[in-house]
Prior knowledge:
- The structure holds two protein chains of two kinds.
- By secondary structure, chain A is of the alpha/beta class.
- Chain A contains five helices and four strands; from the N terminus they run βαβαβαβαα.
- Chain A has a four-stranded parallel β-sheet, sandwiched between helices.
- The longest helix of chain B is centred in the middle third of the chain and has 19 residues, at 559-577.
- Classes of the chains: A alpha/beta, B alpha/beta.
Amino acid sequence: xxxxxxxxxxxxxxxxxxxxxxxxxxxxxxxxxxxxxxxxxxxxxxxxxxxxxxxxxxxxxxxxxxxxxxxxxxxxxxxxxxxxxxxxxxxxxxxxxxxxxxxxxxxxxxxxxxxxxxxxxxxxxxxxxxxxxxxxxxx
Amino acid sequence: xxxxxxxxxxxxxxxxxxxxxxxxxxxxxxxxxxxxxxxxxxxxxxxxxxxxxxxxxxxxxxxxxxxxxxxxxxxxxxxxxxxxxxxxxxxxxxxxxxxxxxxxxxxxxxxxxxxxxxxxxxxxxxxxxxxxxxxxxxxxxxxxxxxxxxxxxxxxxxxxxxxxxxxxxxxxxxxxxxxxxxxxxxxxxxxxxxxxxxxxxxxxxxxxxxxxxxxxxxxxxxxxxxxxxxxxxxxxxxxxxxxxxxxxxxxxxxxxxxxxxxxxxxxxxxxxxxxxxxxxxxxxxxxxxxxxxxxxxxxxxxxxxxxxxxxxxxxxxxxxxxxxxxxxxxxxxxxxxxxxxxxxxxxxxxxxxxxxxxxxxxxxxxxxxxxxxxxxxxxxxxxxxxxxxxxxxxxxxxxxxxxxxxxxxxxxxxxxxxxxxxxxxxxxxxxxxxxxxxxxxxxxxxxxxxxxxxxxxxxxxxxxxxxxxxxxxxxxxxxxxxxxxxxxxxxxxxxxxxxxxxxxxxxxxxxxxxxxxxxxxxxxxxxxxxxxxxxxxxxxxxxxxxxxxxxxxxxxxxxxxxxxxxxxxxxxxxxxxxxxxxxxxxxxxxxxxxxxxxxxxxxxxxxxxxxxxxxxxxxxxxxxxxxxxxxxxxxxxxxxxxxxxxxxxxxxxxxxxxxxxxxxxxxxxxxxxxxxxxxxxxxxxxxxxxxxxxxxxxxxxxxxxxxxxxxxxxxxxxxxxxxxxxxxxxxxxxxxxxxxxxxxxxxxxxxxxxxxxxxxxxxxxxxxxxxxxxxxxxxxxxxxxxxxxxxxxxxxxxxxxxxxxxxxxxxxxxxxxxxxxxxxxxxxxxxxxxxxxxxxxxxxxxxxxxxxxxxxxxxxxxxxxxxxxxxxxxxxxxxxxxxxxxxxxxxxxxxxxxxxxxxxxxxxxxxxxxxxxxxxxxxxxxxxxxxxxxxxxxxxxxxxxxxxxxxxxxxxxxxxxxxxxxxxxxxxxxxxxxxxxxxxxxxxxxxxxxxxxxx
Lengths: 139, 999
């Protein structure tokens, strides 16, 4: 592991809550590390487990899926569906030799710019603690 | 004959009013006396409390307005005469000669370069810089065309020169042009001519005009602005050096009886000064002091903003400090402020720069304007209105909005603008009304056989992006990426000139994909999609990279990494764009009725406005009576008891055949979508096209000071009732402000309590001048004309005692004790009545239930969280649902009424339509891959998927386009990859992932 490990994290944000929350963090000028790249989907339930596996397979050091708070989903219950999928996916990740902590699911509402900031900062810190994606080391 | 509407004044209020009318297919003339629309807001750098860049949120509205097929923008024009009656006004308008043909001028600016007449003070920049005799008002002007100032042009003065005509390749310059008189037939008129700022040169003690480093707030706004004369680099006017210490002096021209000053509070200056101090701090290492009398942060999330300024930004707020004088050191040009500090001792501090927070004044031509329109002004020189009719002038059919009626902030002006358009529409839409034809776009080019040709625009956003991200490098980088045939950077991508450039470049370079890297698609995607349509490109072939909100703003101190990230985001957006496909929305029918939830003043106002336009309205009220909180008001407004106003309103609602009031009725659920909601209630289902939330809020029930146990303790509303019915006879009365507001649990200011307390204090003193009345407070927030109550109370001998933050007064059953920050000592007053100014509680639980049904957010203070605090104050991201009144935020009756009309207007833009076009982003099935397993059917929350037998015993999934909301849940669930989400296909998301991880 290099001394200055600068991880790359993929963040899936749902259009209605967490993407708006990320914008809210910007509007409030809340500062955070640059290590993540946001991909917008309409709902957290749109995030296919295959997307996550593919991101990790291609070298992402962590993947975070952000959705609306339970019961607040713009599409009624998409976030519950996302939660179930992520829970199962963690088992699969372990099978593949990934620390399941490389995948996280969090709820951030449209008015929670501050939560977006702390969530992202903490996740990036955790990933730094885990070190680079093990596939990168193999390569 | 179908009439048009006339909107006078092209600031944000006039623009919004025009857009709302035009979106109801009503034709609008928008008359603006300046050569560009945009008004004061276009001169602001940022806006409070979100610190949104003003140009960024205004430019799309300006572009929308100018490009709207139903709006004729008559810039550089003035109304000269209004004859006729409501529904049939004859209006004379003079369009002043620009001496440049608006149709021919492309705004290229060649003539500006060559004009020899320099050094003319630039009015747009408040004279901080100069312009030529031929000029374009500013870079984001709309229309962006030149005009000649004949008072400085050599051709007009001496009949010499003529250079501009020679250099103009379009032949647009025309020295012979004459003023043009136009006669307009309009059904109704909205006046939105706004305000001007106070002339600081009236104040000799602060040295404005004499000392180089004393500037007015509007000048400072331009000095801070990226598109201002110094490109946002703040310098001292005397030397050009960076200031290290800045003072802001509040209440310049406001809250004083001095000659030339205004008695009222200008309502916005506390907040804008705090904003200016915060933004300055973000860009430079400076010490900043703000000198206030009272800090008036009464609006939504304002209190939090002030705390951030003080706590996080380290801005020094000097409370109760009025500056006596400013002196200049003639050598260094530094300024010494003399003031009394919070402990009353005289202080003198030296500053590099002093900013005067100038108040709002009526326009200098307000009297002439009122005469032309035949409307009355009030004693302050603003348009006269009354509390229950805040949008109506004294002339029927003529309405008012924004700062023409009183000093006010942008969201209030916008909500009012919507409201006035609802009112104005009722004089136009009748049985003879013919709606405007829908806008024609050029036919969409078939790009299915073409290789991708991507055009990329990277926005500087003034300095919002440009100060952190190296924008030109990003644009150069994008130019080299696969598929990209055009890449450029732009000061403001959302400004009219750039939008036109996008449209033109699509045609010129045969682009078939467009990517804009700027702010967020949540606010700006519709604008750029429109530019694509104008260029003959399907709007779904557009993609955005969010390099401001999600990059430059959150990585302000890491320019290199932010630039790398911006490149990644642009690469991701381009990668996805290569795989985008043209999509079409489907047409959905609209139910032409609305539901209003809550039957207080707000709900009834909205219902009456909707019914006035001929639409059926259901008011759903959970209690058994009409009237809401106003039932508990016993004071007079405009010389009449509120109860009388209320009774009139209830009678109007009850007698209106289009309004059905459902009392004692609970809302159980509200499934559906814009244009088609089913409101399921305890009394049956209602089918409506739109929902207005007017559920209000409740008075806070104090737990403090022995309330409920000690009979000497009452709330302000209870005292109001006693004063009214004559049963109040206490001699020693003390009011305690901010009970249940501005504390650790309830952080916000409840806005109305200072006014309520002072109104009652005055009533008590007037009834019994020997009564001893004291008001314990942190700040007195009688903003606007309410300042008169503060003065009147002081005159009558009401004692004002200021206690510090976090140290509420104590009460021992017979006297109130508090630390007085002015006297600097503990003060104790005996009481036989203690009045608690209890705040407003949001009733969060009830709000959350409705919020879940409609999928709308709640703010951290427990009120509904609107789509955009500044420019969409009554909308939600969920279309077809609107909010007004206390459900949105604590406010006074007139503010509730205006906002209710605003919500009604927004609802009208939905329910007045026969059909609406749905989003194109929905699920679709690949029949070849689908084997009809039904997993998708089970996971669709909208029952939009059905498994059907397609013959031969084969089952296939089928999507109902009208019911599908496009969440994509079924796509992720499909085991055979047969389900796809248009616009978010698996390959498109995968392309983004791959691009993000490319090294």
